[in-house]
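I'd like us to work through together how a protein chain folds, taking it slowly. To get us started, please write out a protein record for me. Label the sequence line and the structure token line clearly, so we can match residues to local backbone shapes. Once you have written the record down, we can walk along the chain together.
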Amino acid sequence: MLNMLIKRKGGRTHTEDRHLALLLATTAGILNAMALGAFGFFPSHMSGNTSQLSSEVSNTDLSDVLFLSAIIGAFVIGAMLSRLIAIGGIKNNIRTIFSIILLIEGVMLILTSLFEILFFSSKNNHEIIVFLSFLMGIHNSTSTQLSNGRVRSTHITGTLTDAGIALGAVIATLMRRDPSKQIKAQRSQFITHAVTIMSFLIGGISGLLLYKQFGFNSMAAVGGFIVLIAVGGILATLLRANRRILRQGVS
């Protein structure tokens, strides 16, 4: 399962992408819902934030415009930073680079949660929402790069669109006389999108329930879970590399 965190030159399987969706889309849904419960705002809902920004421009309250602009900018910066780190890692042949990115994200999420546990104040809400949006940018960019665009952990509007396209392709293929060559690929793609959507939805429901029960402690636990998965991916990769070196030495 931890193979899902490795970017290879060859093609990825849909099973790896579905495991990735189960991990990153679920945690994205959880964090999004927790932020809603804590601050009344979605840190990864860029379509809604952009639409709201366009409506706020006509108002005289500049602070709302700046806040929404900061959220959108933070998401883009997070995505950009994830890409720059990934490029550097791939260039230097660091196979665990995406695990390292997730490790950094998980640690930052834990630190943010601990800050809120110890020093929560409504005066800091805007800054925390902006920072969570930055983390969501990292999160979505990482899943998108790993899966070659097939899994977008926070971008459910696009995933629903892709699922509709894949379903349409399946139906069109079924209507042809000889669908055998294409339907398997189209069906696999649709199932991958469906897993992503359901993972985000289940994560959202779980996130609200967890936040109501445990508050920011549950957010710290999500960060810890991401860290564990990232560390597991790094260790699994290193163990495989050591085994390969030993086999080469024996031969």
